[in-house]
TrEMBL record:
Every DUF218 domain range: 108-218
InterPro entries xref list: Cell_Envelope_Assoc, DUF218, Rossmann-like_a/b/a_fold
Protein name: DUF218 domain-containing protein
GO cellular component, one term: plasma membrane
Gene3D superfamilies per the UniProt record, alphabetical: HUPs
């Protein structure tokens, strides 16, 4: 039964990946890996959980299939020691790494990753009104296993209601994963002839490192990214700003 469920899960993932856009990494970056697993390995070691999935040479099938059970074990053991001062320090290092931000500079574009919370577009509108960039680009459909209005369109409506001119908003409403967000959006930039050197990335802290790492694979050395985190609202529903 476990093998059957794992196989079904892998097939489901594959059907999702088939829908993603493709783009070749910038020359010289195909084999460059921007994330570091040091903090998560430290976390797993602290909990007494094997970190081999991050250190050994394993295929993507194993990463995907074993990742779900690993996730459950990490959550269970972390919650069991939630009051441990040493664990809090370890988790602080993980959060600090994943959510690292940059000192903002005036840029050409605010790049917003979609989600089920309005926090990200709220932050983007704040930056836009603060004069940090003249355009807001919103990317996001919804996960391949969900239906409904694309996240990018919901965000666009929010921004317009808050006074951002429609001419200053560009949307990409079809992407289904972070990797797809990046590749599909950059492909659209090329199609539209959009030029940019500096871009502000807006997403939640827990997705910031992943989003930045994907983007770094596809931009040239003379292009600059500035990371800024939006607040996180538990529940992820489309809630109005408070």
């Amino acid at each position: 039964m476990a093998k059957w469920k794992r196989g079904r899960f892998l097939v489901r993932c594959w059907h999702g990946w088939e829908k993603e856009a493709w783009r070749d990494p910038v020359k010289g970056k195909a084999d460059v890996h921007y994330p570091s697993f040091d903090t998560v390995v430290n976390w797993l070691n602290f909990l007494g959980i094997s970190s081999g999935i991050f250190l050994d040479d394993v295929g993507w099938e194993e990463v995907i299939s074993e990742g779900k059970s690993l996730e459950q074990e990490v959550v269970k053991k972390t919650l069991a020691r939630v009051d441990d001062v040493d664990l809090k320090e370890v988790l602080g290092e993980v959060a600090g790494y994943l959510g690292e931000e940059d000192v903002l500079r005036i840029s050409d574009l605010i790049f917003v990753f979609g989600s089920k919370s309005l926090s990200r577009i709220q932050k983007a509108v704040e930056l836009y009104k603060g004069g940090l960039a003249p355009k807001i680009f919103i990317t996001g459909g919804h996960p391949f296993y969900e239906q409904g209005e694309p996240e990018a369109q919901v965000f666009r409506g929010y921004a317009v209601e808050r006074g951002v001119p429609e001419k200053d908003i560009i949307v990409e409403p079809e992407s289904i994963t972070v990797a797809d967000n990046v590749r599909r959006s950059l492909n659209l930039f090329d199609k539209m002839g959009m030029k940019y050197l500096k871009m502000i990335l807006v997403t939640a802290w827990f997705a910031q490192r992943r989003s930045w790492a994907f983007m770094m694979k596809y931009i040239s050395e003379d292009q600059v990214l500035y990371r800024v985190n939006s607040p996180v609202k538990p529940g992820g529903e489309y809630t109005p700003d408070r």
